[in-house]
Write a structure and sequence with these properties.
With 342 residues, this protein is mostly helical. The chain has 15 helices and 2 strands. It has one domain.
């Protein structure tokens, strides 16, 4: 292995690590605020990538109808539990009127003629609202349940989303065109333009999340909820609002990750699970609590995967997932065990 190969593998590792870092940050965010280990995070990546591919092919994405169906379920839950007309009115606008209006707009738009950035915006408009709807249907009614119950629900939601993904997209994979075809020459190493887009977009998202949590009222409310749920509730911060906002941000991160990764590899309806698991490994390295450690762990996972693919490609996933064992052993030996409150 010479220096040129090391540089190429390092470039691939950092690029993949940037995607894993975004997923790891989303997983840490969701767990810190809602105590949900959000296994379906990878499905948002896959659905975002496949929706982008459908728009690129000039087809109306099936995710529009999945959004409408999920909106009807969320509206049904609101109608069953809501007590005020104002709450029901907002629910009708968000869960029913918005998906139908979006479907009507996409029906008349010339999808094949949309620019790349317009397709990204449309993809976000279709898939991101599923995050808060999913929280309202699956997690908000049992928000105070033990972590194990929330984990079981998360697994069930993941399996349901994989099934609906197969129904919506079929077993065939899709790949989109890169955001940039440019090639930057650094000595003997050629750096692709899309690689730079991925790294830059990841940095922008990470900085944006930092500014959101540090400078905005809603961000500080989420931080307060993550630190002390009961204290935040006593200060007037709605746990339901915090949960919906958290799932909204997780969906944004997942969809953008899918849009960024789609030109790098072929995405299938079930590809999100494996990619999300690698983000989960990075989140575990951060203890499901530390954003900087999760991001650093994601880069480590990306580099380990890249170099493992060179030395032992058949075992690269095994090597990556084995990384979680010493991390869990170390945390088990160095942390204090506290029983969950009844």
């Amino acid at each position: 292995m010479d220096a040129e190969i090391i540089a190429m593998l390092g470039q691939d590792g950092v690029t993949n690590g940037a995607i894993y870092a975004l997923l790891a940050l989303a997983l840490v965010l969701v767990f810190a605020v809602t105590r949900v280990i959000f296994i379906p995070q990878g499905e948002f990546l896959a659905w975002g990538a496949l929706t982008m591919a459908a728009l690129e092919g000039g087809h109306l994405p099936t995710t529009v109808w999945l959004l409408a169906g999920l909106g009807v379920l969320a509206l049904g839950v609101d109608l069953f539990s809501a007590t005020g007309r104002r709450t029901i009115g907002r629910s009708v606008l968000w869960n029913l009127a918005y998906p139908l209006a979006l479907a009507g707009l996409l029906w008349v738009l010339p999808l094949a003629e949309l620019s790349t950035w317009a397709r990204v915006i449309v993809t976000l408009a279709i898939v991101v609202p599923m995050g808060p709807m999913l929280y309202r249907v699956a997690f908000q009614p049992v928000a105070e349940a033990p972590v194990l119950v929330l984990l079981i629900i998360s697994v069930a939601v993941h399996l349901a989303m994989v099934g609906f993904g197969l129904l919506a997209f079929g077993p065939e994979g899709s790949r989109t065109t890169p955001f940039s075809e440019a090639q930057l020459e650094l000595g003997t190493l050629m750096v692709g333009g899309h690689t730079l887009v991925v790294i830059l977009a990841s940095l922008v998202l990470i900085v944006g999340l930092y500014l959101f949590f540090d400078r905005t009222l809603y961000g500080k409310a989420l931080r307060a909820t993550a630190i002390n749920r009961n204290g935040a509730r006593l200060m007037g911060i709605s746990p339901a609002l915090a949960g919906r906002l958290t799932f909204f941000l997780a969906a944004v991160i997942g969809v953008l990750s899918g849009v960024l990764v789609a030109p790098l590899t072929t995405i299938y309806y079930d590809s999100g699970f494996l990619i999300g698991l690698k983000g989960f490994v990075a989140a575990i390295i951060g203890g499901l609590a530390s954003y900087p450690l999760a991001a650093a762990g994601a880069i480590l996972v990306g580099l380990l995967e890249s170099f493992s693919s060179f030395w032992a490609s058949a075992f690269k996933d095994v090597i990556v997932f084995t990384l979680i064992i010493p991390v869990l052993m170390w945390r088990s030996l160095t942390s204090h065990h506290v029983e969950e409150e009844e």
